[in-house]
Write a structure and sequence with these properties.
With 193 residues, the protein is α+β, with helices and mostly antiparallel strands. Helices cover 31% and strands 30% of the residues. It has a domain at 43-133: Immunoglobulin-like, CATH 2.60.40.
Length: 193
């Protein structure tokens, strides 16, 4: 044993050893659970699918993620080859799904679906994909898209990690608390001897 530990009374050594064992157990638990907890949401499926060539215009876009997403700051846009936006409603989130209703799509061509969501751990995720409408959709005055705006993301969505605390903050807090507890125990043991 180390010289300073031998100088401590037996009860203090026991307390230090138990505290150290608890500290190691907590670190091991954090290491084993940090992987899944630190993972962020990722797009796992979409309808229409990425790169799909379709003849009939969809009435809705549905995105599925590998984990539940928050409704806060969710954004979903569908922009046609003419630069028009074709989303009819605000995006809806339910569990792992983000969706929006569409107005009747316009000309044949490549449509870009853009999205931004916040994963369960508070980390924002964004991306886009395309699908190809091979036949122009019949349009009516009520179904015309809206002109594209310079930004496809809501301004409020620009904050990064604005919801919840990242996992690393909790890990640091646990380490600091355990280290402080160990320092108190060692200080008390030194004062007794």
């Amino acid at each position: 044993m180390h010289e300073s530990i031998r100088a401590l009374p037996a009860t203090a050594v026991t307390i230090v050893m138990r505290t150290a064992a608890a500290f190691v157990a907590v670190l091991a638990a954090l290491a084993l659970t940090a992987g899944p907890a630190a993972a962020h949401a990722a797009l796992s499926g979409s309808d229409p699918a990425d790169g799909a060539r379709i003849d009939t215009a969809p009435t809705q876009v549905n995105l599925t993620f590998n984990e539940a997403i928050q409704s806060t700051f969710a954004a979903l846009t569908v922009v046609g080859p003419d630069g028009q936006h074709y989303e009819r409603s605000e995006p809806k989130t339910q569990g792992k799904t983000l969706s929006t209703d569409l107005t009747g799509l316009g000309p044949a061509g490549v449509y870009t679906v853009g999205f931004r969501v916040v994963s369960e751990d508070g980390h924002p995720i964004q991306g886009s994909y395309t699908f190809d409408l091979t036949k122009a959709a019949p349009t009516t005055a009520a179904d015309s898209g809206t002109p594209a705006s310079p930004t496809t993301q809501p301004a409020a969505a620009e904050t990064d990690e604005s919801n919840g605390f990242p996992m690393w903050i909790w890990a640091v807090a646990v380490v600091v608390l355990l280290g402080g507890g160990l320092a108190v125990v060692l200080g008390a043991a030194r004062r007794k001897s």
